């Protein structure tokens, strides 16, 4: 990144962390960076684009940290539960990643980013774990008759169910996620019928 782009990025990261996406505007970022508004748009087409760049970098850092901490040779059920728990804790601890749970805001940000950049970088949950799934399938630890990408989609269900707490009932969380993960892992680690 150029110096100005880096400064905009760093100021955006600070402000998004402190104030959240919704309460941060381009003027806040440019004032903190000491640049004109026009300069911002030379490097980032929108506030949403800047936020997504920061979000994706933070998400990548979290996923790498989780992978470094895992015992890939462990039992898939235990490893997946640890991954999910660490991911949820990491997202809850990071104010930028926490924006993912604000479905009203994040859906709009993601939509705008995808329109401009396509899908190649917007892969939020467990994409880095796909190789691990394939290895388990090859070792016979996980069902190979289910496509690895479908398995990743099943894991995504466990995460996005969090958006539906009010519909399902708050009194059941996080137990619903734990039970759902348990049921999915039981089905994935049993031999196919």
Number of strands: 0
Order of helices and strands: HHHHHHHHHHH
- What is the strand content? under 5%
Question: How far from one another are the termini?
Answer: 53 Å
User: Helix proportion of residues, in percent?
Assistant: 55-70%
Low-confidence sequence ranges: none
Task: Give the overall shape, derived from the CA principal axes.
Answer: elongated
Structure class = mainly alpha
Average predicted confidence as pLDDT: 86
Radius of gyration: 19 Å
Count helical runs.
Answer: 11
Largest sheet geometry:
none
Description:
- The chain has 11 helices and no strands.
- The longest helix has 23 residues, at 47-69.
- The chain has helices spanning 3-19, 26-33, 37-43, 47-69, 76-93, 95-98, 103-117, 130-139, 148-160, 165-168, 175-189.
- With 193 residues, the chain is an all-alpha fold.
- The mean pLDDT is 86.
- The protein is 69% helix and 0% strand.
- The protein is elongated, with a radius of gyration of 19 Å.
- The N and C termini lie far apart (53 Å).
- Helix 4 packs antiparallel against helix 5 (76-93) and helix 5 runs antiparallel to helix 11 (175-189).
Key phrases:
193 residues
Note the topology.
Blueprint: H1 3-19, H2 26-33, H3 37-43, H4 47-69, H5 76-93, H6 95-98, H7 103-117, H8 130-139, H9 148-160, H10 165-168, H11 175-189
Helix pairs in contact: 1-2, 1-4, 4-5, 4-7, 5-11, 8-9, 9-11
């Amino acid at each position: 990144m150029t110096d100005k782009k880096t400064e905009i990025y760093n100021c955006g990261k600070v402000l998004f962390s402190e104030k959240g996406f919704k309460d941060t505007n381009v003027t806040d970022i440019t004032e903190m960076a000491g640049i004109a508004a026009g300069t911002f748009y030379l490097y980032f087409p929108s506030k949403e684009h800047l936020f997504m760049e920061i979000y994706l970098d933070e998400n990548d850092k979290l996923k790498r940290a989780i992978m470094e901490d895992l015992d890939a040779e462990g039992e898939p059920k235990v490893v997946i539960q640890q991954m999910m728990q660490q991911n949820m804790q990491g997202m809850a601890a990071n104010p930028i990643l926490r924006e993912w749970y604000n479905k009203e805001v994040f859906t709009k940000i993601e939509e705008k980013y995808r329109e401009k950049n396509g899908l190649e970088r917007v892969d939020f949950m467990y994409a880095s774990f796909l190789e691990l799934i394939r290895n388990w399938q090859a070792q016979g630890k996980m069902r190979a008759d289910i496509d690895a990408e479908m398995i990743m989609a099943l894991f995504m269900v466990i995460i996005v169910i969090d958006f539906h707490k009010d519909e399902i009932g708050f009194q059941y969380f996080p137990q619903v996620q734990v039970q759902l993960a348990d049921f999915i892992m039981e089905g994935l680690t049993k031999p196919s019928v």
